[in-house]
Design a protein that fits this description.
single chain, 418 residues, mainly alpha, Growth Hormone, Chain: A, globular, disordered C terminus
């Protein structure tokens, strides 16, 4: 209890709450088409490959919108950037309510839903900005637990679609966005951890090796989480022939598990280090993916998905324990860049699974491909981590007691963004 009070007193809890709600509701909007996948696919008689593409379009669009929003937030402030983005989300949802009537309209709506996916880097930087570095992993874990929005979408969207029609769900979602928007306007405060820097300094992480190593890690942890979250309703519906509402409920079990463990991942990373935590996460994820290749029963499949989501969620928290240590003054931009590339994993996985099902009649090949990719990235991380622990982070990925000098980064030929 004392540790919890110390954590809360060290920062600004209302801003952390605002960041969580902002990310939570935005994430729910981002995966809305995936949650309604069984309804949309039945309406337009879509093939497995078309379903995979349809649910992945918002992911791709959101990935490309993240970095620009992160850059903008450095100039107008993270709070203002969040307010602008949420206002744009409301307008996009109203388009969906009034104008989406064909499959191509759904794809266009997917691009607009990508606006919501841009929230990641800003939300995490805003939520953790008031907290000292020894608590940033936990603060980012709490803000990042907003990916529980996947559970909200999977729980409520199918039920609303069943009673009112899936197009009307966009209208309900637009109304709900006013809750996080109001909390952000009236309760959040812009964090003090910001410096004026040149655009070159903001963009420096794009040209650093470390940035691309983090991108690859996040393709598995966040990309896997997002890709599975958007595809699971359609997977359950086609694989086990459950009802559309049951498919959403089963998805909730898995996605909510991953959202809760994100906080634990940040906490464990603060204690034992992000590198150590990520190593365990990857091994568990790979084991879970191999289990899915056997095409187990509905109950066993759900338990395996819960295991995978638990590991991936913890991995997301552990990754962003390391990011502010590596880029302490440009966390929003670095987080936006890593989120942008990493989220592409969420675009890849549904398409790989859809193509596997359409061309082989089974999802097995898709699981094999993603498990193999995860294994290769685990090996890469263990190799490059040797250099990280000699420069900007402690043993296992724990925070140094002192901020590393700029020369620590430059010693290995890496441009210092901070």
């Amino acid at each position: 209890m004392a540790s919890y009070k110390t954590f809360m007193k060290s920062g600004h809890p209302p801003t952390l709450l605002a960041a969580f709600l902002y990310f939570d509701f935005s994430f729910a909007i981002w995966v809305l088409n995936g949650a309604m996948g069984p309804f949309i696919s039945q309406n337009f008689h879509l093939s497995p490959a078309q379903i995979g593409f349809m649910v992945s379009v918002p992911t791709l669009a959101g990935a490309f919108m993240r970095f620009p929003l992160g850059v903008i937030s450095q100039y107008i402030g993270r709070k203002n950037a969040a307010i602008v983005e949420m206002s744009a989300i409301v307008i996009a949802l109203l388009y969906g309510f009034f104008f989406v009537h064909t499959y191509h309209n759904v794809l266009a709506m997917g691009v607009l839903l990508g606006i919501a996916g841009a929230s990641f880097g800003v939300a995490l930087s805003l939520g953790s900005g008031w907290f000292p570095k020894q608590y940033k992993g936990l603060a980012m874990g709490i803000a990042g637990a907003g990916n529980s929005g996947t559970a909200l979408a999977a729980l409520f969207a199918p039920r609303l679609a069943m009673h009112f029609g899936w197009q009307h769900v966009y209208g309900f979602a637009a109304a709900m966005m006013f809750l996080p928007l109001g909390v952000m306007i009236f309760f959040a405060k812009e964090p003090p951890d910001i410096e004026h820097a040149t655009l070159r300094e903001h963009l420096a992480c794009l040209f650093e090796k470390d940035g691309w190593y983090f991108n690859m890690i996040y393709i598995i942890t966040f990309g896997g989480f997002l890709g599975l979250a958007t595809f699971l309703p359609s997977f359950y519906y086609s694989q086990f022939h459950v009802t559309k509402v049951q498919a959403g409920t089963l998805t909730v079990f898995a996605t909510l598990t991953g959202s809760l463990t994100r906080v634990l991942g940040g906490w464990f990373a603060d204690k034992i280090g992000g590198i150590t935590t990520l190593s365990v996460v990857f091994l568990i994820s790979i084991a879970g993916l191999f289990g899915l290749m056997a095409t187990p029963s509905l109950t066993a499949t759900t338990l395996l998905f819960m295991l995978c989501f638990a590991a991936l969620g913890a991995g997301n928290g552990a990754t962003f324990q390391l990011v502010p240590l590596r880029w302490p003054l440009t966390t929003a931009v670095a987080g936006g860049m890593i989120g942008e590339i990493g989220a592409l994993g969420g675009f890849i996985l549904p398409n790989v699974l859809g193509q596997s099902k359409q061309h082989t009649g089974s999802y097995r090949l898709g699981w094999i491909c993603y498990a193999a990719l995860a294994f290769l990235i685990l090996i890469m991380m263990r190799v490059v981590a040797r250099n990280w622990t000699r420069t900007w982070v402690g043993v296992g990925g724990r925070a140094h007691t002192e901020i590393p000098k700029e020369s620590d980064f430059e010693a290995d030929g890496v441009f210092a963004a901070d």
